[in-house]
Amino acid sequence: MKLYSFPGAPNPRRVLIFAAEKNIALDIINVDLMGGEIKKPDFLAKNPSGKIPVLELEDATCIAESVAISRYLEAFHPEPNLFGETALETAMIEMHHRHIEMELHTAIGAAWVNGPVVASMGIIRPIEAMRERGDRNARSYYERLDRELASREYIAGDRFTVADISATCMIDFAGAMVNLEPDAGLTHLKAWRDRIGQRASVIANPISG
Ligand SMILES: N[C@@H](CCC(=O)N[C@@H](CS)C(=O)NCC(=O)O)C(=O)O
After folding, report:
1. Given the DSSP bridges, would you call strands 2-5 and 27-30 parallel, antiparallel or unpaired?
2. Distance from the CA of 50 to the center of ligand 1, in angstroms?
């Protein structure tokens, strides 16, 4: 299986860490993200959204969206389970994962696309009020996570799941590229990040690529 990726990009990194947890070997193809390769017809035929990651199967079927790819991998490699075992656990992981994606990822994404790095690429016109709101919402979500992680070890409960992968990839990206490193005073969030950072799957797939 081929994975279209880019070193350090947060969404492909979610899949790389997920696959590493399950010891799944992927054939990594790094696209020319800056050169606009993923907006050209050849790549749009693989993913009409023009984004990575994309998983290409042996028969050339392409799966986009990091969660869809991860679910596919989990179906074929169920161990270790990362999406939930029982009905209740699956629902709880899904709930926390959706909160991370729809609230934290959205906030960091707004701060990123309206921030100085994207502005310097001249791709879109930044809106400062959107950057400020994304920044505020991300920091407020960090505080929420810090409160939640005071009473449990992982994002969705007492074990490592896909929700931890999505959260760590986005927070690492926010710290490295969006000037949104969590405050050092958020000690429960920091302890969680240190815990996640010790995993072999995360060490093997650093944010810097
Ligand atoms: N919801 C998608 C997001 C994919 C995404 O935004 N990927 C980024 C790289 S981390 C990308 O391709 N950006 C290029 C662009 O949007 O033009 C997923 O989870 O896979």
Report:
1. parallel
2. 8
